[in-house]
Amino acid sequence: MDFTPVLRAEALKVLTLRSLCGTLLALFAVTTAFSALAGVSGTSDPDFDPLFTALSGGMLGQIAAIAFGAVVVSCEYQGNGIRLTLAAVPQRGRWFAAKLAVVAVPVLGAGLVSALAALLAARAGLGAAADGLTVGEQIRGVVGCGIYLMLMALFAAGLTTLFRSGVATLSTLIPFILVVSFVIGDATGAATDFLPDKAGQIVLYQAPEGTLGPWTGLAVTALWAAAALLAGFRRLRRRDA
Predict the structure, then answer these.
(1) Cα 16 off chain centre by
(2) Which of 150, 235, 132 has the alpha carbon at shortest distance from 200?
(3) Which residues contact 47 (CB under 8 A, 6 or more apart)?
(4) Is 241 within 8 Å of 81 (Cβ atoms)?
C-alpha cells in the first residue's frame, strides 16, 4: 500500500476522536491563558526573563502535547486494534511513519499558533518590561516553542509504542517533567541542561544560561525523541501485534 492512503487513514482516526481535537484546543487555551497571567505578575521575579515569561504557558501546554502523542498511538492497542491495522498495512515502517506524521504536524501547527497567541497576550500585560525583546528573539521563541511541543509529543509517541500503553507513558513522563526534573536539576546543577524537557526549554529564554544554546538545546530534545521512537519501532518490528 502506498504511503498517501495510509497517511489519510491515520489522519481520519485523529479527526474522528473528539478527545484528540479537544487536546489540541486545550494546548492552545492553557498556553495562552497561563502566559497572559504570567505577563501580569511575572515582572516581580528577580530572575525575570521577558521572553520566557511570555511563553511560560507552554510549560503547562506541553502536558496536552504529551497526552496527544500518547493517545494517538495508544488507541491502536485498545482491543487489539493494532492487529487489524497491521493486517491492512503490513509494512510496519510505513504505518509508523504515517502515525508519527499525524502526531507531529497537528502539534507543530497548534504549538506555533499557541506560542504566538501567548506572546501577544503576555506582552499586553508586560508592557514596557518587554520592550527589550527584539523581533528576532520573539520569532525564535515562537518557532522554538512550537518545535519543542512537537518533539515532546513525538517523545511520548515513541514511549507509548515501546510500552504499548498510553497510561504507562503518561504516568512516567508527566511526573518526571513536573517533579523529578526539578529535583534532579537542584541536585545535579548543569547536568539538568541535558534532560529532554530542560534542554528544549532553553530556546524560550531571551538570554539563556548554561552549557547549551537555544538550538543545540532543541537538538538534545530531538535526540531524546529519536531514541524513544527508535526503541518503540524496534519493539513494533520484533513483537507480533
Answers:
(1) 22
(2) 150
(3) none
(4) no
Q: Which three cell numbers stand for residue 167?
A: 497510561
pLDDT-based confidence at residue 44 (cuts at 50, 70, 90): low
The DSSP-derived string for the chain is: --HHHHHHHHHHHHHH-HHHHHHHHHHHHHHHHHHHHHHHHGGGSTT--HHHHHHTTHHHHHHHHHHHHHHHHHGGGGGGHHHHHHHH---HHHHHHHHHHHHHHHHHHHHHHHHHHHHHHHHHHHGGGGTT--HHHHHHHHHHHHHHHHHHHHHHHHHHHHHT-HHHHHHHHHHIIIIIHHHHHHHHGGGGGGSHHHHHHGGG-SS--SS--HHHHHHHHHHHHHHHHHHHHHHHHHS--
**CA 170, 31, 97, 82 torsion-angle sign:** positive
pLDDT of 100-125, one tens digit each? 999 999 999 999 999 999 999 999 88
Lookup result for grid cell 487555551: 29
In this prediction, residue 45 carries a pLDDT of 61
Compute the distance between CA of residue 152 and CA of residue 156 in angstroms, rounded to an integer: 6
Confidence (pLDDT) at 131: 84
Inter-axis angle of helices 18-41 and 58-74, nearest 10:
170
Whether 83 and 95 have beta carbons less than 8 Å apart is answered as no
pTM above 0.90, yes or no: yes
Instruction: Provide the 10 A C-beta neighbour count for residue 224.
Output: 20
